[in-house]
Design goal:
Blueprint: E1 4-12, E2 16-21, E3 24-29, H1 32-35, E4 44-56, E5 59-67, H2 70-79, H3 87-93, H4 98-107, H5 110-114, H6 121-131, H7 143-167, H8 172-185, H9 192-204
Parallel strand pairs: 3-5
Antiparallel strand pairs: 1-2, 1-4, 2-3, 4-5
Helix pairs in contact: 7-8, 7-9, 8-9
Length: 206
């Protein structure tokens, strides 16, 4: 039983990583809800793993599924206790952050759950019936990390926009004030281009 893996990321695929450990390459499947939270600059990794054998035409294929911590793995193990959801289906279904899925289960949000890949209305109801009231702690994981990443991303956008405004001959205090006002007007800006467009609209309306 392989319980964890640590090594170099040699290749990234849509739903898996090729990890090199002492000259051996291991494909580790990562639920998309976890994958999209991983830094794209990350070259070294360590994952807690769920190891199982998948039956395929009279063959037994070993499969590794990776998680950043034991709590994420525990949620996965609880998720696959729902009838009709095996490890392969669970990897596909966990396409959003685990705390969001846990909160949807706890609140009985069928609409959210049935929108997950491979989960229809009936399966969503089965998930709620099986797990509601049992996944509260999973709604707490990663929340702080995600907020920190979001704050860091916003800071990067603001710094990039500030640099552009300084190149356009705006004084630093003026540029910082324009950026602050634009972010206050619209906190959902995703990149420097959107932020600068908001700054432009704001100045045009003055």
């Amino acid at each position: 039983m392989i319980c964890s893996i640590a090594g170099k990321i040699k290749q990234r695929k849509e739903n898996s990583l090729l990890i090199e450990v002492n000259g051996f390459g291991y494909e580790v499947f990562i639920p998309h809800g976890i994958m999209k939270c991983l830094s794209q600059d990350k070259t070294e990794c360590e994952f807690v793993t769920f190891h199982y054998h998948q039956a395929d035409q009279n063959k037994s294929i070993p499969v590794l599924i990776g998680f950043e911590n034991e709590i994420e793995k525990e949620f996965f193990e609880r998720f696959i206790t729902v009838s009709g959801i095996g490890p392969k289906a669970a990897v596909k279904a966990i396409a959003e952050p685990i705390p969001d899925i846990a909160r949807a289960i706890d609140s009985g949000d069928i609409a959210y759950l049935k929108a997950l890949p491979g989960i229809g209305t009936q399966r969503a109801r089965e998930i709620v019936a099986k797990l509601q009231g049992k996944v509260g702690k999973f709604g707490l994981i990663r929340g702080v990390v995600l907020k920190e990443k979001a704050a860091a991303a916003k800071s990067d956008i603001e710094q990039e926009s500030l640099a552009i405004l300084l190149q356009l001959q705006y004084k630093k205090p003026e540029a910082e004030k324009m950026i602050k006002n634009a972010m206050a007007r619209n906190s959902d800006l995703k990149n420097s281009e959107e932020l600068l467009n908001e700054v432009y609209r704001q100045r045009s309306n003055q």
